[in-house]
Amino acid sequence: MRDAFLSFSPPLIGDDEISEVLDTLRSDWITTGPKVRRFEQEFAAFIGAPAAAAVSSATDAMLVGLAALGVGPGDEVITTPMTFCSTVHVIEHLNARPVLVDVAPDTLNIDPEQVARAITSRTRGIMPVHLYGHPCEMDALHDLANRHNLFILEDAAHALPARYKGRMIGMPRNPGAGNRGQLTAFSFYATKNLTTAEGGMLTGEPELIDRARIWSLHGMSRDAYKRYSAEGSWYYEVVLPGFKCNMTDIQAALGLQQLRKLPGFQARRRQIVRRYNEAFASCDALQTPVERPEVESAWHIYALRLNLERLTIDRARFIEELKARNIGVSVHFIPIHLHPYYRDKYEYKPDDFPVAYREYQRLISLPLNLRMNDGDVQDVIDAVLDIAERYRR
Ligand SMILES: *Cc1c(COP(=O)(O)O)cnc(C)c1O
Question: What's the CA-to-centroid distance between 253 and ligand 1, angstroms?
Answer without folding.
Answer: 21
